C-alpha cells in the first residue's frame, strides 16, 4: 500500500512539474510574438512638438532612402531597386516583417515605412508605444528598462553597421563608415527619452 501511495505522490509531482513547464513554454511563446511596425506617423504625432527629432530626420538622407532607389544611380545596381529585396532591406523600414514595408502595400501605408524611419533604428514600436501611452496617461515618465524589454533600441554602431557595411554597393573602402562622426550628424535630442526613469 505504501508503494502505491509513493507512486501516486511521485506521479502527482511529475504532473505538476509538467503542467508548469507547459505553462511557462506557452508564456514564452506569447512573449516571442513579433513586435509590429507602426510607421512613422505614430512617432511623428508625439515627437513633432516634443523635440527636434522629426525635423532632424526629415532633413536627413535616411528620410529619402527609398526615393534614392528610383534614381538612375540606383538602377546601375538593380533593374528595379524599389522592388529588389537586397536594396529594400536597408532603404525601407521593417521589410518583410509584420507592419513593415512590402512592395504591394497601399500607398498610404507604404509612405509611413518607406525610407529609414524611426523604427529602422529604434525597433518596431507596437509594444513600446503602448508603454509610452500608458505613462503619458498617468503623467509619469516611462521606465527605460521596460521600454528596452518592449523592443525600444538605442542605436549603436552595431545597429548602424547592419546597413552601412561592405555589402552595400555604394560602400567605399577608402572612406569606411565612421560611427562617431556619422552619429553626430543624425543624433537628435529626444525629450521623451531624457525624461524616462
Would you give an account of this structure?
By secondary structure, the protein is mainly alpha-helical. The chain has two domains: 1-33; 40-194, Orthogonal Bundle (Flavocytochrome C3, Chain A, domain 2). It has helices at 2-32, 40-47, 53-58, 65-68, 85-91, 107-113, 118-122, 126-138, 144-149, 157-160, 179-186, 191-194. The longest helix has 31 residues, at 2-32. The protein is globular, with a radius of gyration of 23 Å. The termini are far apart. 22% of the residues are buried.
Mean pLDDT: 84
- Poorly predicted runs: 10-17, 27-32
Please state the CA-atom Rg, rounded to the nearest Å.
23 Å
Helix coverage percent of residues?
Answer: 40-55%
The largest pleated sheet is described as: none
What does the overall shape look like? globular
- CATH arch. level architecture of the largest domain: Orthogonal Bundle
Structural class: mainly alpha
CATH topology of the largest domain: Flavocytochrome C3, Chain A, domain 2
| CATH level 1 name of the largest domain | Mainly Alpha
How much of the sequence is in beta strands? Answer: under 5%
Total count of strands: 0
N-C termini distance: 60 Å
String of helices and strands: HHHHHHHHHHHH
Number of domains: 2
Tally of alpha and pi helices = 12
CATH fourth-tier homologous superfamily of the largest domain: Flavocytochrome C3, Chain A
Amino acid at each position: 500500500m505504501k508503494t502505491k501511495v509513493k507512486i501516486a505522490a511521485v506521479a502527482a509531482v511529475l504532473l505538476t512539474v509538467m503542467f508548469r513547464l507547459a505553462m511557462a513554454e506557452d508564456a514564452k511563446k506569447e512573449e516571442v510574438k513579433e513586435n509590429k511596425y507602426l510607421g512613422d506617423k505614430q512617432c511623428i504625432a508625439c515627437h513633432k512638438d516634443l523635440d527636434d527629432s522629426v525635423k532632424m530626420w526629415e532633413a536627413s538622407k535616411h528620410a529619402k532612402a527609398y526615393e534614392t532607389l528610383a534614381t538612375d544611380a540606383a538602377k546601375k545596381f538593380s533593374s528595379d531597386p524599389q522592388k529588389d529585396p537586397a536594396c529594400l532591406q536597408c532603404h525601407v523600414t521593417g521589410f518583410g516583417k509584420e507592419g513593415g514595408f512590402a512592395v504591394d502595400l497601399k500607398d498610404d501605408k507604404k509612405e509611413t515605412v518607406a525610407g529609414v524611419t524611426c523604427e529602422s533604428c529604434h525597433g518596431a514600436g507596437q509594444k513600446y508605444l503602448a508603454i509610452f501611452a500608458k505613462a503619458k496617461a498617468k503623467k509619469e515618465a516611462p521606465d527605460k528598462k521596460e521600454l528596452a524589454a518592449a523592443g525600444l533600441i538605442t542605436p549603436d554602431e552595431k545597429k548602424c553597421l547592419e546597413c552601412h557595411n561592405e555589402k552595400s554597393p555604394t560602400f567605399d573602402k577608402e572612406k569606411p563608415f565612421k560611427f562617431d562622426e556619422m552619429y553626430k550628424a543624425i543624433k537628435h535630442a529626444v525629450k521623451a527619452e531624457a525624461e524616462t526613469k
